[in-house]
Amino acid sequence: MTTFAFNPLLRTTVGFDGLRDLFESLMDNNEGTSTYPPYNIEKHGEDRYGITMALAGFTEKDLNIIVQNDRLTISGHIEHKEEKEREYLYRGIAARPFERTFRLADYMKVTGAEMKDGLLRIDLVREIPEEQKPRMIQIKSAGSQKTIEHNSSNDNKDKKKVA
Q: Are 108 and 81 in contact (CB under 8 A)?
């Protein structure tokens, strides 16, 4: 097994304590190698995304979509009723139970889900709060030095610099 040192990546970051855990969980994630059910992740503009999953044989009542913290979990389970009337010579439509988890970036929200033609579409949008958006910081000047002159016969000796 190959191991990676993430210290060089984290040298210039502040407050990303969970980032190392994220990388390690992605490296160790056995679910990451699963290809069932097939899915697409799409980008629909600057802050809009979509996930489309091919779920042939599933209906809305067979699926659960849960958002908790930074995780979107989609699971499905079909109640198989005994099919005495149907005999399969080949069964290629895999309607087996599944659970797929996606890690969501900060400020990512699920805005809707729709099941149509065997495809589950989930809409996501990144809504950054106003206080988290970039803002300009004014730089105040420390002030310039002022020279106070005293009226006397020797002007050069009596000039004082005040900050």
A: no
**What letter does residue 147 receive in the DSSP assignment?**
E
Q: Count CB atoms within 10 A of the CB of residue 51.
A: 19
Q: pTM for this structure?
A: 0.63
Query: How do residues 80-136 score in pLDDT, each as one tens digit?
Result: 766 667 788 888 887 889 999 998 988 899 999 999 999 999 999 998 888 888 888
Q: How many other CB atoms are there within 10 angstroms of residue 63's CB atom?
A: 18
Please tell me the distance from the alpha carbon of residue 127 to that of residue 71, in angstroms, as a whole number: 16
Name every residue whose Cβ is closer than 8 Å to that of residue 13 and which is 6 or more positions away in sequence: 19
Whether residue 37 is preceded by a cis peptide bond, meaning omega within 30 degrees of 0, is: yes
Q: Which two tokens stand for residue 15?
A: 């407050």
Residue 13 has pLDDT above 80, yes or no: no
How is the chain split into domains, by residue range?
1-33, 35-128
Please give the CATH topology (third level) of the domain spanning 35-128: Immunoglobulin-like (2.60.40)
